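Reading group handout, session on sequence-to-structure problems. Before we discuss, look at one worked example. The prompt was deliberately terse, the way you'd type it at a terminal:

> structure Succinate dehydrogenase flavoprotein subunit

The input record follows.
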Amino acid sequence: MQVHEYDVVIVGAGGAGMRAAIESGQRARTAVLTKLYPTRSHTGAAQGGMCAALANVEEDNWEWHTFDTIKGGDYLVDQDAAEVMAKEAIDAVLDLEKMGLPFNRTPEGKIDQRRFGGHTRDHGKAPVRRACYAADRTGHMILQTLYQNCVKHGVEFFNEFYVLDLLMVEEDGVKKAAGAVAYELATGEIHVFRSKAVVFATGGFGKVFKTTSNAHTLTGDGVAVTFRRGLPLEDMEFFQFHPTGLAGLGILLSEAARGEGGILRNGDGERFMERYAPTIKDLAPRDIVARSMANEVREGRGAGPNKDYVLLDLTHLEPAHIDAKLPDITEFARTYLGVEPYTEPVPVFPTAHYGMGGIPTNIDAEVLLDNDTVVPGLYAAGECACVSVHGSNRLGTNSLLDINVFGKRAGLAAAEYVKTAKLPELPEDENPAEFVQTMVETMRSSNGTESVAAIRKDLQETMDANVQVFRTEETLRTALADVEALRERYKNVGIQDRGSRYNLDLLEAIELGFLLEISEIVIVGALHRKESRGGHFREDFPDRDDANFMKHTMIYKDPEAEVEGIKGLRMENKPVVVTRYQPMERKY
Ligand SMILES: Cc1cc2nc3c(=O)[nH]c(=O)nc-3n(C[C@H](O)[C@H](O)[C@H](O)COP(=O)(O)OP(=O)(O)OC[C@H]3O[C@@H](n4cnc5c(N)ncnc54)[C@H](O)[C@@H]3O)c2cc1C
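And the output record:
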């Protein structure tokens, strides 16, 4: 076992982790631990854009952006956080520009901007051009730019290091972060990283679903690791289904396709969004568009031989425009569905995309132990965190923004904290790596007969079938019973590879444990929330219920407690921060 010492340890090298590292790396001894090589992080798959009210191509301001974010999130957004994000968006884009990011430009040389769902002029009057972009490779450009700047600042990376535990100590009755324990993929060695501060930036957990836009690696590790250490998770029941996944596959076609003029049509060729969102139509927020699509299919107006998808029509756009603005995603349609977007509409259906919930933080990215107690030295940013700027439904382009704004804030806050903090002493009579050693050894030596792939498949299938765009008590109970049975089967899981070098078998088994744990929390939260809001739609409770549910869900691990029949969990609530926008009816 190797032991390392740093001021700041950042877990994750996606956009949030690297944006944090650029700040902290210039001010404090910083290590970035990442299970993927940094430029393979999912941020690199982001397509459409990153928004900021630059007003480069039409009138706009950060207050409109704040309002859109709050309304888009169906009023579960913490409004102080949304204000910070919308205000700091402008510098976040300019920071990236100065770091060298090649944004698309207007003819006068300004950063160009395009439309995206839910972003409007003057509180919903019409769509506004707010998304900055680099063709449909915006995330790729962000990730490369951030990585180059990390290298420039000499940030130390530990690539293919899987963090499997968070170290915490108690000093004078206060629980603090003390480091992280990682498994090195190449050697199978376990490393203890002692540090004054730890920043989690481990991304999402879309792999709880089968049909998803998310990469295979998005297994919610940071979310599960902190939860296992007694920290709460916030608003996990809210999961976003992106309207335009390639039908049957889930591969994403960015909302930029609609931002550039693409239109959704049902099997009858009708532009059905005119009925559901008469003002902004195809550019309504994702929860509304995804539900409308699912509804068209349910009511028999789907397209295709089985009428089980709808169509994204780009055929009225000039091929040259498609090539300039949407080159990658149209290539996906050709490659994976054999459809030519110049001349044929593309079959699409909602795909699991983004977890609004996660590790609760305040606006300085400090992790919360409960509603207002901060854990000294512990930070989280990006998709694994819940600030909450997205509330119950995130607007497109607000995540690339979130990772830049709150990644930067996390890096700055951690660097400031370590200036005066001491390196926490670990208890001498305890082995800090014991938890991880036991987990790894138990898995490696297990003679279990259940396969990882089979359990994962069953998990993803029940989540797809029962925790979807539309949910009811009955579907959620089915999913919960399935997940409980799968957790039993998981106790008897076995792996083929018993070696120590590049043992991906072992790590997939551990990641499956994270997915099972997270799924349970998602379902329990969804069962408890007997209302419909944003991405969470209960057919048995179709209305938003502000009197009873205008509050965040906080779920804790607690052996003494029980929630929705599940032992070992405790549920509490956290008030929503309302500054200037009282909840209103949400019409588009
Ligand atoms: C296909 C697609 C397109 C998208 N398009 C857009 C868009 O156009 N605009 C927009 O705003 N948003 C978009 N999003 C959402 C957005 O890209 C993500 O929410 C965001 O990039 C997440 O960034 P992150 O830094 O939090 O995590 P990620 O970029 O996912 O990075 C996670 C990091 O954590 C590391 N990690 C994870 N677990 C561990 C562990 N156990 N130990 C060590 N390291 C670990 C990984 O190695 C990785 O480096 C898109 C998402 C997808 C999937």
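Points for discussion. First: The CA atoms of residues 500 and 524 lie 36 Å apart. Second: The chain is about 35% helix and 25% strand.
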